[in-house]
Amino acid sequence: MTTQKPHDTFPRQYARTNRFTTGAPRSFTVTPDGTRVLFLRSRGVEAPANLLWSLDVASGAETVLADPAVLLGGGAEELSDAERARRERSRETSAGIVGYVLDAAGRTAVFALSGRLFAVAVETGEARELPAATPLLDPRPSPDGRHVAYATPSGELRVTALDGSGDRLLAGPEGEGVSWGQAEFIAQEEMGRDRGHWWAPDGGALLAARVDDTPVRRWWIADPANPDRPPVEIAYPAAGTPNAEVGLWLLGLDGARTEIRWDHAAHPYLARVHWSAGGSPLIQVQARDQREQLVLEVDPSTGETTVLLTERDEDWLELFAGVPVRRADGQLVRIADHDGARVLMVGEQAVTDAELHVRSVLGLDGEQVLFSASCGAAEFERRPAGWLGVFTHGPEGVRELGDGALGAVRGGGTTVLTTADPRRPGTTVTVLRDGAEPLVIASFADTPLLAARPVFRFAGERRIPCAVLLPTGYDPDVDRELPVLMDPYGGPHGQRVVQAHNPHLTSQWFADQGFAVIVADGRGTPGHSPAWEKSINRRTAEITVADQVDALHALAEEFPLDLGRVAIRGWSYGGYLAAAAVLREPDVFHAAVAGAPVTEHDLYDTHYTERYYGDPAVEPEAYEANSVVALAPSLRRPLMIVHGLADDNVVVAHSLRLSTALLAAGRPHTVLPLSGVTHMTPQEDVAENLLLLQVQFLKDALGIA
């Protein structure tokens, strides 16, 4: 499907289609009996708002359960500032219904739309608005299907009846800066916890986070292009400064309140909360230096906690999606670093070994554990670079479900598997059920105007995973050596070399402008081994730049690379890496574009920064050694710095400090401020022209006609 417009270009199409995700199915849930699959999908680029759909597994028929245009009576969607901030944290750029939650029986789905609360009956498709205080956030139905809990921007946690009989306050802020039932900034941005309330299995109570962010220092983000608008105040916990104080309470619908107790001073981070049917709640709490974390069992009657597991690591402990959880038989399921490998643990037993590097637990279905993994160190090159698979573990052992799978959900014996192939655009979503023919859920996403052709390699002695992209139609036997563009993210939690097509489209577009583009996932990136990820400890700049250099030189032995004309570009950590590369290795990198770069780490947030550099008051040398501002006097190559002025994640102060230091040192450079742009750049005109300006800057810098 292509909705090409007159004079369309790939950059404009890429922005207009939300990176070709508009119209693609997403957010799958399987009903407990396995007979239906719910999912979100828009009708395509011309109608980009997500609808809630239901697939009948037996017949293959798809039904629209909820259409935003109908529910809002054709009116425009309105978002509160709190909802915009929540979407920024989750990198959510779509419209319409962006999330929903199903009750335990699979009968009712609830969702927020334009700050209002809606519920839809899965069997009949009857949708209705429920009484609620608006605007609201994160509605979740009780397992028994009788109530919906939700949060408000003012900090309230409220409950409304699904039968429409009433809405009431469950907990409200006792003062300025206090909120109930919401995840704080650090939990959302860095810990992968985007929620703040969890229903008891019987629907009679909730565990609720109480967040007090009054200790957190305030920053103000202004819009210089609109001086009549007041600055936006944000509570931003920069490295070495106070975090929000986070507690957990059990709130009964009957008005009872019980505080959940643990040693907050030793373990201030509330990382995970899980409450399975038939069991006591589990919480995971973490020390501020992230070298120790506990799994605690909660006694709901008293709020006391018992230590089930203590984990320690001399570098840091990772937090993983989907764990810790309890299996149906009560066994604790978690992911751990064991004997140099990252393994799946069920109870006290490691059920995987060094052949797999476990990434996340995707769900449970009875005694079956669904999980994703890449190749472990023992068989790292048995699969191509960037390979990812989905597996199950149960009584029969470990079984692979999908080669090249990006994700999966499972319930009632039905599995929804999302796979990708680097030779084909988009993803394929397949519904699998024993004894039935597989079903494919259709995608209405646009077909890209260009085709990515990544070539995957393991480069150099360290076997760095890489993707190489050459211009369309390039003939190495006829054409000359190509100028090089390194196009990394290159840091923690950001894998760019993947066995898929669409993630390489922008790199291919740059290649078609006349570059050999290299994407290299060096040390510190996920998917390899614990030692690989943790080797950057206190040495991010040195290690990640060195691996870009090594990958470049190793690939030059096979590909037609002009090592006299090498540029590097990146965004966020990639922007930091690009700036560090051109400053540290000017004989290798001859130009750079640094987008939204972290330039001084004491300006970035606590949980992320302190993991890699420690407390700035205790280890200032780690911060100095990895700062790019400190290297400003060494700049002797063209550098473009790009930053959104509304960025509340990597604030523009990072780029301004680097520019100020460069100016003080008399080093020419280019600064491109993006008015009104956050850490994401979803605006169509901005996204297109940003790519075009980067290309022209790089060509001018490298002397390319």
Task: Describe it.
- By secondary structure, the protein is α+β, with helices and mostly antiparallel strands.
- Among the domains are: 322-411; 455-702, Alpha/Beta hydrolase fold, catalytic domain (Rossmann fold).
- 16% of the residues lie in helices and 35% in strands.
- The chain is built from twelve helices and 44 strands.
- The strands form ten sheets. The protein has an eight-stranded mixed beta sheet. Strands 1, 2, 3, 4 and 5 form a five-stranded mixed beta sheet that branches.
- Helix 1 (10-16) runs antiparallel to helix 12 (684-702) and helix 7 crosses helix 8 (573-584).
- The longest helix is centred in the last third of the chain and has 19 residues, at 684-702.
- It is globular, with a radius of gyration of 25 Å.
- The mean pLDDT is 94.
Main structural class: alpha+beta
CATH architecture of one domain: 3-Layer(aba) Sandwich
Mean pLDDT: 94
Beta-strand content bin? 35-45%
Q: CATH superfamily of one domain, please?
A: Alpha/Beta hydrolase fold, catalytic domain
Overall body shape: globular
Helix content bin: 10-25%
Question: What's the arrangement of strands in the largest beta sheet?
Answer: 37-38-40-39-41-42-43-44
Low-confidence stretches: none
The radius of gyration is: 25 Å
Number of helices: 12
Q: Span between N and C termini?
A: 35 Å
Indicate the CATH topology of one domain: Rossmann fold
Class of one domain, according to the CATH hierarchy? Alpha Beta
Give a quick account of the main beta sheet: strands, pairing sense, barrel closure: 8 strands, mixed
How many β-strand runs?
44
Organism: Kitasatospora griseola
GO molecular function: dipeptidyl-peptidase activity; serine-type endopeptidase activity
InterPro entries: AB_hydrolase_fold (IPR029058), Pept_S9_AS (IPR002471), Peptidase_S9_cat (IPR001375), Peptidase_S9B_N (IPR002469), Serine_Prot_S9B/DPPIV (IPR050278)
Protein name: Peptidase S9
